[in-house]
Amino acid sequence: MRKLMSYLSSYKFLIILIFFLIFIQSLSQLYLPTLMGDIVDNGVVTGDIPYIWKIGLLMLVVAAVGVIMSVIISHYASTVAMSVGRDMREDVFTHVSKFSLQEFDMIGTASLITRTTNDVTQIQQATIMMLRMFLMAPFMLIGGLIMALSKDAKLSLVILFAIPFIVLAIAFILKKGYPLFQGVQKRLDRLNMVFRENLTGIRVIRAFAKRDVEQKRLKVANTELTEISIKVNRLMAFTMPLMMFLMNATIVLIIWFGGLRIDSGNMQIGDLMAFIQYVMLTMMALMMASMMFVILPRATVSAHRIQEVLEMDRNIVTEGDMSADREKGTVEFKEVTFYYPGADEPALEDITFKAEAGNVTAIIGGTGAGKTTLINLIPRFFEATSGEVLINGVKNNDTKLTEIRSKIGLVPQKALLFSGSVLENIRFGKEDATEDEVKHAAKIAQAEDFIEQLPNGYGSEIEQGGANLSGGQKQRLSIARALVRKPDIYIFDDSFSALDYKTDKKLRQALKEETEESAVIVVAQRVSTIMDADKIIVLEKGKIAGIGTHEALLKENKVYQEIVKSQFGEEENV
Amino acid sequence: MTKEKHSSSGPRGHGGMLVAGEKPKNFKKTFRRLLAYLKPHKNSLLLVFGAAILGTVFSVIGPKVMGDTITVLFEGAYAKFQGIPGAAIDFPKIVQLLLLLAGLYIVASLFQFIQQYIMASVAQKTVYYLREDVFIKINDLPLSYFDRKSHGDILSRVTNDIDTIATTLQQSLTSFITSFVTIVGIIIMMLWISPLLTIIAVLSIPLSLYVIRPLLKRSQKHFGVQQRSLGELNGHIEEMYTAHEVVKAFSQEEKSVQQFKKVNEELYDSGRRAQFISGIIMPLMSFISNISYVLISIVGGILVIKRTILIGDIQAFITYTRQFSQPISQTANIANIIQSTIAAAERVFELLDENEEEPVHNAIQNRKTNGDVRFEHVDFGYGEERLMTDLNIHASPGQTVAIVGPTGAGKTTLVNLLMRFYELDGGRITIDGIDITKMNRDDLRMKFGMVLQDTWLFKGTIKENIAYGKEHATDEEIYAAAKAAHAHHFIKRLPEGYDTILNEEATNISQGQKQLLTIARAMLANSPIMILDEATSSVDTRTEIFIQEAMENLMKGRTSFVIAHRLSTILGADVILVMDKGAVIEQGTHQQLLELNGFYADLYRSQFTESA
């Protein structure tokens, strides 16, 4: 909630204005009974009809002031609430945009998405309620008390006597209700999680004939949610009648004591009638305010989740401003060691190699050998713990991040596309690419044929996540996107896996001509795809187990021999 | 497809006030069906209705009694004021009236409590059963349903739609009743007190409706725009977050933030408008009620002077007009709430009405399986388009069938057919001579062990995840399976070992490790027929050696279908199925296929000859 406050504080003038307007609105609400009391005391009792008309008109004016205030309040309250939502959303998004890959992994992509979308909406909703209903309560309470005191200070003692009971009742319900509401939220999340697992795992569940087990899991989650929901709603069932009763009991007491005071001539009947209405207005406002705790638990959970994102310690990277073009088309690692934060053992240790222009450098190794980690150090997604990474002959922290990345064409393991046309997707790699450049890139990526077969060719829309394309098609577009930049350094992170062998081969041939002046770094699973690389780096447990050509490694490198053996079988090995 | 998903990001329920209106397709039918869910609670509901009516009646009488008390007070005081000798306030009468008033309020509160209390369990139990029906249904739906509908859509039916129904049952249903009774009761009380004042008060009803209707309509329009912008924005967020690696690599952060800002601003604008309009409805209502309040004060005052009405009745009347506006605004919105609730129910029922997997009658009992698998003249297509025509495959017990072909060639289609995830268009598939459609689906599927690329794991410990393959597996069996799958080693190194809890997306272990776990799971299941995917992109090289050994162990003595990526597997296979574009285009042994000199021969040469 602290975080929410800081967002609200940037609209403090508007909020002060809203406060002020609510104050006037509350006054007008409270002034009406006073005027009505006057009608009774000065008009009805004395039989003065013109007076009644006069005060009546005044009441209309007061009511009109009230409604005008309300409309203005609604305007500013929605402006503030939506602004808070907008700002918070923007901050979270901009902040997350700057996250490094590690930071993304720490919270998880799916969770980050709900935090930016659902959680912010939740808070926005709470802000509106707060500005509209919650703020009214203190004014009504204080205003009502002041009016009551000014009417008849002694009779106000009844209200002062009643208030502790009401506060106690609210406190009691809050104390009981708050954890319950939080519990509802938790169990709802749990039910949704189990259900989502049932959807994503449907094949596996059926394959293992686990229908009953899953049914039971769902049932447990469902029962748990139902139980706590019933509890919460029963508590709520208790709330309203209790509050109503307290209010009505207060009124009964007021009539009694008011009657006594009228009898002794200390009070007039109209004042008593006004008094009763003050009590009603004040207590209604209090009750409205107590409804906030229905919304608050949800909002607090959301606020907490957002805060976690915004307060995540980001590694600030140091940037220089050299341009990275000393030795074009090269990547060099000098004694690079890398630890994941908090890890005891390095993910990469003492890595030294150089990828030259016009050469293909392949990286191969087992699970957890550190291949992707190594790749991620090149565009500076990760920061080397020690040692140096040189891009185009320039140390990567002597230059800007954007400068480094503009030199690199990355084709990630997973072909991620964006909604938009094919053209836009390829141009993602180079915004100002001409149509010819785009077509050329598509041709080399072996994507030309299928693009032209699409209903609108290059203008065809790609659905979110590339849902309307096959895995191979997505991969080829992802390759074309990297090609269109004509980068100095190509990184292919196992990016041919979805291609059939024929396409794969054609693509490699076309690539060769395209990359004559660039360094090509390929992470591969299949030895067959990298056999003719100029340099093969064999990684094992974060260390380099060997560097060399296929033939050389095959002769003397044990790890490599094992890999080859596993993939080709003995007879192919000759 | 993804659009529906975002509706799940909106605020839940409808808080009783404003809902973006959606019209149900068949109101009557859905309404009846929803009522059927309430039927078991018929008695409770009657009790609730009774309590609601009684509670409201008692609370409606309250102000009148209070007014009478004031009148007694006033008359006594007035007489005193006029100096009539012996005049005094009739306190015994007041005590009597106040006790009656207190009694009325206690009873009213009690009934209100009873009503809410019972409704809590009625509402929650009703949605419990609704949810349970959906859960049961989900497990009976054919897989083709999940191809058609996005997860987001299905999820939203279970969360948002059912939540809307719950809110309506819990809050709106009883408030409709109380609103109605309150309005009727108040009008009766008013008429009793003064028909003239009643006319003034009641005039505010059409006036209120006249003001509210167009506002409701406008706010709904703006809420619609808001919902659309929100959907667009959420789509953008999802896309950018999912592909953050690419966005970074191509330095597109700035552009993505710019685009975000643009949509965010649109959302702000439409949201502000929608909120503004919905925010002024209540104040306008209370203004209208204030107008009648003022008029009643004036006219009432004059009437009192003319002695046609008692002063306390004015007090009562004012209280009534105050209590009038809330039930009216509630009833004004009834149509919307009912409509959106029925629309929500309709979406839930739509899911419940989907065709289920055909039940198997007179299923042939489960027997020991030898693993003789035949496809006989199989025709199949997912939709209109026929993918396989007259496909014949035979795998003898213990044989290995290798399936090769590019990704998207339809290799998983074969798996889908074997497991009877989909129904054939023609021909039949037999296991040991028995048509699989004659077997109980669970029995059939138990015959297969699966290791697919799609490594589904659930939130729970590693041990539980492996034990998924076999109920009541002992720890020893689990360890043995993990060892055979070469997973034991990495599990042991995890901080909590076998008790390590996998998180929701299982991001706390690597993709390769996940695959090892699914192999362990299949090991434990020990099924007579195996379906394996050798896909290499998740488990790689060094680990692959282990996995290959593990998979060879799995295949030993079992009929196996292998989506093959390794030459050794292909060469060792008894039958090779070559698939392309969803269909089996060639089949035979390695030698036969090479001699055929077709697709396979081409494939083989392009992939492996350089090394040979």
In short:
With 574 residues, chain A is of the alpha/beta class.
Q: What would your notes on this structure say?
A:
The complex is a heterodimer of chains A (574) and B (612). Chain A has 20 helices and twelve strands. With 574 residues, chain A is an alpha/beta fold. A six-stranded mixed sheet of chain A has the order 6-9-10-3-11-12, with helices on both faces. Chain A has a four-stranded antiparallel sheet with strand order 2-1-4-5, with helices on one face. In chain A, strand 4 and strand 5 (394-395) form a beta hairpin. Residues 569-574 of chain A have low confidence and may be disordered. In chain B, the strands form three sheets. Chain B has a six-stranded mixed sheet with strand order 6-9-10-3-11-12, with helices on both faces. Chain B has a four-stranded antiparallel sheet with strand order 2-1-4-5, with no helix packed on it. Chain B has a two-stranded antiparallel ribbon with strand order 7-8. Chain B is of the alpha/beta class and 612 residues long. Chain B starts with a helix and ends with a helix. The longest helix of chain B has 53 residues, at 253-305. Chain B is built from 20 helices and twelve strands. The radius of gyration of chain B is 36 Å and the shape is elongated. In chain B, helix 3 (42-81) runs antiparallel to helix 4 and helix 14 (475-484) crosses helix 16 (511-525). At the A-B interface, helix 2, helix 3, helix 4, helix 5 and helix 7 of A face helix 3, helix 4, helix 6, helix 7 and helix 8 of B.
- Taking pLDDT < 50 over at least 5 consecutive residues as the criterion, the unreliable ranges of chain B are 1-20
The number of distinct helices of chain B, counting runs of at least 4 residues, comes to 20
Task: Give the fraction of residues assigned to helices of chain A.
Answer: 55-70%
* Order of strands across the main sheet of chain A: 6-9-10-3-11-12
Q: State the shape of chain A.
A: elongated
Q: Beta-strand level of the residues of chain B, as a percent range?
A: 5-15%
Question: How far apart, in Å, are the first and last alpha carbons of chain A?
Answer: 69 Å
Category from helices, strands and their pairing of chain A: alpha/beta
Main beta sheet strand tally, sense and closure of chain B: 6 strands, mixed
Major β-sheet strand ordering of chain B: 6-9-10-3-11-12
Radius of gyration of chain A: 36 Å
Poorly predicted sequence stretches spanning 5 or more consecutive residues of chain A: 569-574
Major β-sheet annotation of chain A: 6 strands, mixed
